[in-house]
Amino acid sequence: MESGWAREGFPGGPRGRFGAGDDGGKRKLKDRTVRNMYKRMFFHVKGRWGLMLLALACLISNSLLEFVIPQLTRYTIDDVIPGKLFGALPWVAAGVLGTAVLLGVFGYLSSIALASVGQRAIFDLRNELYRHLQSLDMAFYDRNRTGDLMSRVTSDVGMLQQLVSAGMMQIATDLFTFTAIALYMLYVDWQLTLLMLATFPLMLFTTRKFSKRFRTSFKTVQQSVAEVSNHLQDTLSGIRVIKSFANEDYESERFAERSETNMKANLRTVRLRAIYEPIIDMLNYLGMVAVLVFGAWQVMRGHLTVGAIVAFLAYLRLLQNPIRHFSRILNTIQQSAAAYERIMEVLETKPEVTEKEDAVRLPPIGGHIVFKDVGFSYRSDVPVLRDFNLEFTPGKVTALVGPSGAGKSTVAHLIARFYDPQQGTITVDGFPLKDISAKSLREQMGVVSQEIVLFNGTVRDNIMYGKPGATDEEIIAAAKAANAHSFISSFPKGYDSEIGERGVKLSGGQKQRLSIARAILKNPRLIVLDEATASLDTESEHLIQEALARLLVGRTCLVIAHRLSTIQSADRIVVLDQGTIVESGTHEELLHLNGKYRRLYDMQFPQEQAGGEPA
Ligand SMILES: Nc1ncnc2c1ncn2[C@@H]1O[C@H](COP(=O)(O)OP(=O)(O)OP(=O)(O)O)[C@@H](O)[C@H]1O
């Protein structure tokens, strides 16, 4: 499978293990994938053996019951009709109908049992995958596209469901049915049976030839579906940009191109099937001709009864079913194996930022953070922070300023331990970040950033995200402190208003104040403020500044800002450039230094140079 993922080089991914080797290597990979897939699915099925056994028993009973109706037909033709056994007719009818009822009941039971086992296994696998995704670090999310990850949790897991609910059992019962019927027929008339079985190698050969083509064709379909959904995800979430550039037609054309690829791929699959099925039908008829002609000859010579030929023809149909199923199951297995590989690529990815077994739970902290000789890069070839030394004083506001790309947000990411530095250490109150539990650190941290994420749910739910189980009084107090209470109260449903697509629409400033309320409710010791006031109107900015001032009081704060007006009162301002600290001090000290900060300041407030007040 040539996913972009594999090319990214997942260390634990199948490609990483086997390498992109020759065909032999690929076959090995495939076999191993299929074996592992069965092993894992059986693992998920474990504990539900009762239901599995019930399903198996029902399927085997059905295979045996399939024998009955042809036998009753033979009996009617050979014995009842010539012997004029009128009294036997109701029994024949009852036998056929009774068998049909039993077939229905066993079919129902096996479907229900298989579906509940299959659904349960898929439920477990999907939850395991989601939990694992939650545990992966930010670097993983930097590398992967959301649409792709979503399709792995939804459609790839769904694909495996087919395998568990139908494929696994079908193979077992088909084999059973095939062997049982073939043995019985050999017993009744070995010559006729051998003649009939002669068409099977041809069928197997055709199926094998076609299954390879089906596999390639399925892959193309799956890839084209992924392309369509990636395009949908990108363009529907970026609909504002598309409209603002008036690019609706352009995007519609691009979408049509992808849809066309998908349509063509589907048509190729249909064409293949349209050739394959008549060939199989032809071979089936060949078998039938053999039975009919050879059988008739046997009857004429008095070696076989008419009823026996009729029964043989019915058995022939039963015998051919497993072959038809088998080709379908081969496809299911191939599709599932591809999906399984994509799932395992995620499950086998280990986070780079890991927690030690004996990680220390951080006690309530003061917020003394020290960066010592820290070196960090997102990708090995581009250093972002170099020999970085910085100390955050507890209870004080430290501001980071500097040009875009200087590494300001990176400092915040490292404090939250979204990434680990390659060199140096970072400590909080003397505890190295690598030794403490990330949960205990993040519980004491609040982040308010420009990119505000509110989840589907009510206003209350969103504020409460900062402190699950908070009381209404606490929520309202936090909203008041964040200057959010009045606009929330103006909604018809107040705190119970739904946010999101079907709920109230919030302005940028309102969202910002909700996120501040969430942080105030959390009451963390450490606050990271990432360009929280960018791109807002003056009125909103004033309300937000007030809210932030309340949030920052008495906490250790890191403020990242482009707008120097927002950080002039910071206890310390650190100027970053290309990942190193070039200046640091208070606003006044830095202005007097006449260095980089002064230049940034003069750029933002040119009137100051002319003796005016900053805006
Ligand atoms: N997830 C990432 N993966 C790879 N490179 C990244 C990632 N995030 C940031 N970078 C790079 O690291 C450098 C520092 O980025 P950072 O976001 O820390 O800068 P910044 O000073 O906060 O910039 P801005 O003010 O524009 O937000 C930039 O060159 C950026 O391209």
UniProtKB/TrEMBL annotation:
InterPro entries named among the record's database cross-references: AAA+_ATPase, ABC1_TM_dom, ABC1_TM_sf, ABC_transporter-like_ATP-bd, ABC_transporter-like_CS, P-loop_NTPase, Type_1_exporter
Annotated protein name in UniProt: ABC transporter ATP-binding protein
Classification via PANTHER family: ATP-BINDING CASSETTE SUB-FAMILY B MEMBER 10, MITOCHONDRIAL, ATP-DEPENDENT PERMEASE MDL1, MITOCHONDRIAL
Molecular function via GO: ABC-type oligopeptide transporter activity; ATP binding; ATP hydrolysis activity
Entry annotated with the keyword Zinc-finger: no
Membrane association type: Multi-pass membrane protein
Single GO cellular component term: plasma membrane
Bilayer-crossing regions: 49-69, 89-117, 163-184, 190-207, 274-297, 303-319
Similarity-based family: Belongs to the ABC transporter superfamily.
Keywords from the named record: ATP-binding, Cell membrane, Membrane, Nucleotide-binding, Transmembrane, Transmembrane helix, Transport
ABC transporter domain ranges (all copies): 369-603
Subcellular location(s) per record: Cell membrane
Main location: membrane
Superkingdom of origin organism: Bacteria
Stretches the record annotates as Disordered: 1-27
Biased composition (Gly residues): 10-22
Pfam families: ABC_membrane, ABC_tran
Residue ranges of domain ABC transmembrane type-1 in the record: 53-335
